[in-house]
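Exercise 7.
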Amino acid sequence: MSENQVAGSGAPLAGKRVVVLGGTSGIGFATAAAAVAAGAQVVIASKRQARVDEAKQQLGPQAEGHALDLTNEAQVRDFFAQVGAFDHLVFTAGDPLLLGELAATDLGQARQALELRYFGALTAVKYAQPHLRPGGSIVLTSGAAGRRPSKGWTIAASICGAMEALTRALAVELAPLRVNTVAPGLVRTEMWEDVPEAHREGMYASATQRLPVGYVASAADIAKTYLYLMQQPYGTGQTLVVDGGSVLV
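Solution. The predicted structure, written as tokens, is:
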């Protein structure tokens, strides 16, 4: 059966194997859950074993999980050697965003943010691509801040811009393997759990009034974009912005 025929069935990713790095929470977990619902076998990886175990239990028997430090090159290399052949790589891993004006920014923390979000993705692709089957894809993660940064978003916007440039370069270098990026806007995820609840809910309420779509996305909303890019055979080197229209207003 062709991939197009499978895509027309109730399980468009049946027979596929998807690796989701950062797959224990937020957008990564939602993407892993959506892939399982679409018939895929899923491999999730994240740094903390307890969260891996919890996520794997929630995802069910179609999922396997591994504890993995994505800033450790040797661990990443060994992980993909253990995983073996698969079809789609999704990279959603990231610490909470480093926000604040540049004058007050700890440059050590800025480098650490790049270490996971940029170099972690770069390392993952380096060691994953020999194991990706023909017709497979890589979907990375950027953010709407790269298109319309707010004051205090210098580091976050820089990382987003770097990820989008990386995507274009990899799409050329790794062709015919497809490489794309999702750039979400504001999403209700655990990334904001360190923000005081009153401030967080105020942020969501303000965004709801401002956004053309009239609400703040859930992780499940954004996960649909990753699944689309896995299944879209003619798109590569693209950044798909899914931000509720935030770049417009």
